[in-house]
Amino acid sequence: MFDGKIPIHWLHSHAYCEYQIFLKHVKGVKIAPTAAMMMGAKRHSVLEVEHKEKATEELSVDDALKKSRDEKIVLIAREVPVAWSQLKGKIDEIHFMSDQIIILDDKPNTVAWDSNKVQVWGYCLAFQEQFRPKLPISALLRHRDTQKTIWEEVFTEDHRDTVLIAVNRISGIMMGEKEPIPTDNINKCRRCSLRNMCDGKRNGL
Ligand code: SF4
Q: Does 202 reside within a domain?
């Protein structure tokens, strides 16, 4: 049942092809977890365990914002839940600094695809709305295995608008008020795990 809050990782799927949202979450098409999905879940668990082993204290987000500002130190938190009126999700990692906040998402690829960027913009927006930090927020994509930064950019009003447009489309599709549009990129359909169940895919597949 759709509660009006969009899981932030859906933004990735929507940016790839919004017909995926329709198939998975309106029609209820199910796919078995792929090897890549299982590997991703395992790697996230490892990173979480490593973080917990190194963690020295447990703070709320508000306390972490204050402590990093007052003591001019960097605090790192993982798997931080966020929720706003239209979005909900869990942020892979947050770096609290005295002069900025960095929202990180770990990804298996070395390229910063637009679909990855809009997902991390979604986390930035939900964090900004929920906690209202008086600091700039940056989005960062990091390679899940090498832990190297792939891309980093300050979150702006334009990024916020990009997320809100996607949220509006997804909500409309979920409520049956908007027609989902399949991608016209046949290469995306070729790589799509839903292609065998999709009635909107490009001809020739
Ligand atoms: S097969 Fe193509 S049109 Fe269908 S959901 Fe996948 S990417 Fe979209």
A: no
The domain tally of the chain equals 1
Residue with the nearest Cα to atom 3 of ligand 1? 201
Query: Which domain does 110 fall in, by range?
Result: 6-197
Asked if residue 20 is part of any domain, the answer here is yes
Residue 71 domain-assigned (yes or no): yes
What's the pTM value of the predicted model, to 2 decimals? 0.91
Strand partners of residue 115: none
What residues line ligand 1, using a CB cutoff of 6 Å?
A: 17, 19-20, 23, 182-183, 188-189, 192, 194-195, 198, 200-201
Tens of pLDDT along 20-70? Answer: 999 999 999 988 777 777 887 787 788 777 877 777 788 999 999 999 999
Q: Classify the C-alpha dihedral 78-18-198-203 as positive or negative.
A: negative
End-to-end CA distance of the chain: 32
